[in-house]
Amino acid sequence: MTNIEKYLSLLTGEVDGLLLTSRYSRHYGAMFDIAEGVAIVTKQGCRYFTDSRYIESAQKGIQGFEVVEMTRQMPYIELLNKAIGDFGVKTLGFEEDYLTVAEFEGYRKGLKAELVPMNEKIAGFRRVKEEYELQRMRKAQQITDAAFTEVLSRIHVGMTEKELAAELVYCLLKNGGEGLSFEPIVVSGPNTSLPHGVPGDRRIREGEFITMDFGVLYQGYCSDMTRTVAVGYATEEMRKVYDTVLRAQLAGIAATRAGVTGRDIDGAARQVITEAGYGAFFGHGYGHSLGMEIHELPSCSPGGDTVMQTNMVSSAEPGIYLPGKFGVRIEDVVIFEDDGCQIITQSPKKLIVI
After folding, report:
1. Which of 77, 147, 242, 350 would be a feasible disulfide site paired with 172, CB 3.0-4.6 Å?
2. What does the pLDDT average to over 88-95?
3. CA proximity to 142, closest of 166, 181, 172
4. In a domain, 354, yes or no
5. Using CA atoms, how far apart are residues 67 and 84, in angstroms rounded to an integer?
6. Which candidate, 105, 30, 40, 44, places its Cα nearest to that of 76?
7. Half-sphere exposure at residue 137, Cβ-oriented, CA atoms within 13 angstroms
8. Is-contact 200 133, C-beta < 8 A?
9. Within this chain, do residues 51 and 137 fall inside the same structural domain, yes or no?
10. Is residue 91 exposed (0-12), middle (13-18) or buried (19+ Cβ within 10 Å)?
11. What's the average model confidence in pLDDT over 56-67?
12. Could you give the CA distance from residue 158 to residue 112 in angstroms, rounded to a whole number?
């Protein structure tokens, strides 16, 4: 079944068509990424609208849609209404999670069809990955691993977090990344206790941790990994916390397979951290799905009640964060299989001391 056929399978009576406004759903349906546009999917026909900046690329690359140029004389609302009339559409499923109130009101007032919220169903197809998607994610992770190896040689005492973040971005793009899947988290010393800390002007010193959380885009798909390394040396407490996080991650990975819930996986990792006395310092979930977006559903968290399926993808990223002292996070990306999981992150996890 093609991706556009998956969308068409939703047209069973609740709605006559789908309005695709997010870049992710347009890319998924058309098998081609255009930054700007909107698309309509119906059993009578499918149209993809974009402006003059992207029309040539769209005409060459988009599959399964009639490509139409948006102009000042024929804006999106007019083009959509023409399609609504041509295809006999009365109701349109739309992606409520990706529209501002102003955008929604514009469509609600301007379109000659009733809008029905359907984001969960539209996005739901992206939860289980096709093989071509997994191949892109493996390639994205290979690029990320190569960048990590290279950036290790660039770290030195006295450089700032911002400087290291810049070196990391350079390595990610140099090794084949087509963009960043998110702004890298690069923090050092006491700042590593901030799970989503922002790189600043703090200078790196001996005897402290550096945490780097980063990823790239490759053909529209994300990678994601975190490594915590020590500079010069690591204290006994630093090593103890690092070992605890690593054991927790390995416990979560051991529990990762199709047929279990995200809550079960999170619980396996969380138990290790709790039994070591650090339960109060692991606040976020064990992992999240990813694909076209860096954070997708389902999640491996205390509230993750979805039963995981083969070819779902998740991060595996427990952490311990001691305020004012330091933090440790180790993150890989895994693919769910019937009897376990495939770890696509290949960078070493044994504590690296630079």
Report:
1. 147
2. 97
3. 172
4. no
5. 15
6. 40
7. 30
8. no
9. no
10. middle
11. 96
12. 62
CB atoms within 10 A of CB 306: 16
Instruction: Report the C-alpha gap between 137 and 129 in whole angstroms.
Output: 10
What b/e sequence results for 106-120 when a residue is b if at least 16 CB atoms lie within 10 Å of its CB, and e otherwise? ebeeebebebeebbe
Do 204 and 338 have their domain in common?
A: yes
- In DSSP terms, which residues pair with 213 in a beta bridge? 185, 226
Which pLDDT score is estimated for 304?
95
Range of the domain at 336: 131-343
The CATH number that applies at residue 88 is: 3.40.350.10
Q: Examine residue 348 and state whether it is found in any structural domain, yes or no.
A: no
Indicate whether 244 and 184 sit together in one domain: yes
pLDDT in tens, 208-217: 999 999 999 9
Sign of the CA dihedral running 18, 24, 29, 32: positive
As a whole number, the mean pLDDT across the chain is 97
Predicted TM-score (pTM) of the model is: 0.94
Q: Say yes or no to pLDDT of 13 above 90.
A: no
Confidence of residue 74 (pLDDT cuts 50, 70, 90): very high
321 within some domain: yes
Whether residue 67 is contained in a domain is answered as yes
